[in-house]
From TrEMBL:
This protein's name: Probable transaldolase
Catalytic activity of the protein: D-sedoheptulose 7-phosphate + D-glyceraldehyde 3-phosphate = D-erythrose 4-phosphate + beta-D-fructose 6-phosphate
Coiled-coil features, chain-numbered ranges: none
Taxonomic superkingdom: Bacteria
Pathway note: Carbohydrate degradation; pentose phosphate pathway; D-glyceraldehyde 3-phosphate and beta-D-fructose 6-phosphate from D-ribose 5-phosphate and D-xylulose 5-phosphate (non-oxidative stage): step 2/3
Main location: cytoplasm
Keywords: Cytoplasm, Pentose shunt, Schiff base, Transferase
One Pfam match: TAL_FSA
Enzyme class: transferase
EC identifiers of the protein: 2.2.1.2
Primary role: Transaldolase is important for the balance of metabolites in the pentose-phosphate pathway.
Similarity comment: Belongs to the transaldolase family. Type 3B subfamily.
InterPro entries (alphabetical): Aldolase_TIM, TAL/FSA, Transaldolase_3B, Transaldolase_3B/F6P_aldolase, Transaldolase_AS, TSA/FSA_arc/bac
Annotated organism of origin: Elizabethkingia miricola
Length: 217
């Protein structure tokens, strides 16, 4: 399973990269705004910096919502760096844009996926990744993991190449459950990734080993 980090924060991206387990980065307009990035040139520059830190797929989301504008914007984003993946919303014009980019050999990530039908359409249109939003479904008392399972079944049935990129991750348990189901990728905030490290018996065991190591001279 690939690990992407879901942030535009450069310090956190560097920290995950230094850990040696990072395969890519996802961003969205809200995450960019959180970092105080604004203006087309500043956004492009920020993506360039991320691409220099991480050698993997970097999702850059279009800000427009019409087919023509998404094509123009997506082509500009794709020109920033060969690792840029154009992130497109799951709307009618978005499906058309996915098809366009797929035919041009430009990687895409179809975002805001909340149903199996949407994931099926995105795969038909040739999306490289689909991003089902696990946590936001859980937030409204709907089982987000069930959606990941449904998409896994459908993609397996027809051997779609589209990769399931589980997004809106809120906890280490989300990551573990996605791995059990067979999501191809998770994109997660840094704390949930680091949460995978933690076990009290590891801490206790290490403290004992360190104490005993001193006795060995
Ligand atoms: O990047 C898309 C997704 O991961 C957003 O997560 O936490 O805003 O629901 P969240």
């Amino acid at each position: 399973m690939k690990f992407f980090i879901d942030t535009a924060n450069l310090e956190q991206i560097k920290e995950a990269q230094d850990l040696g387990i990072l395969d890519g980065v996802t961003t969205n307009p809200s995450l960019m705004a959180k970092e105080g990035i604004s203006g087309a040139e500043a956004i492009k520059q920020h993506y360039k910096i991320i691409c220099e830190i991480v050698d993997g797929d970097i999702s850059a989301e279009v800000l427009s919502t019409t087919y023509e504008e998404m094509i123009k914007e997506g082509e500009e984003l794709a020109a920033i760096h060969p690792n840029i993946v154009v992130k497109i919303p799951m709307i009618k014009d978005g499906v058309k844009a996915l098809k366009y980019f797929s035919e041009k050999g430009i990687k895409t990530n179809c975002t805001l996926i909340f149903s199996a039908g949407q994931a099926l359409l995105a795969a038909k249109a040739g999306a490289t990744y689909v991003s089902p939003f696990l946590g936001r479904l859980d937030d409204i008392s709907t089982d987000g993991l069930n959606l990941i399972e449904e998409i896994r079944t459908i993609y397996n049935n027809y051997m779609y190449d589209t990769e399931i990129l589980a997004a809106s991750i809120r906890s280490p348990m989300h990551i573990i459950n996605c791995a059990k189901i067979g999501a191809d990728v998770i994109t997660s905030p840094l704390p949930s990734i680091l949460g995978l490290l933690k076990h009290p018996l590891t801490d206790l065991g290490l403290a004992q080993f360190v104490a005993d190591a001193k006795k060995l001279g």
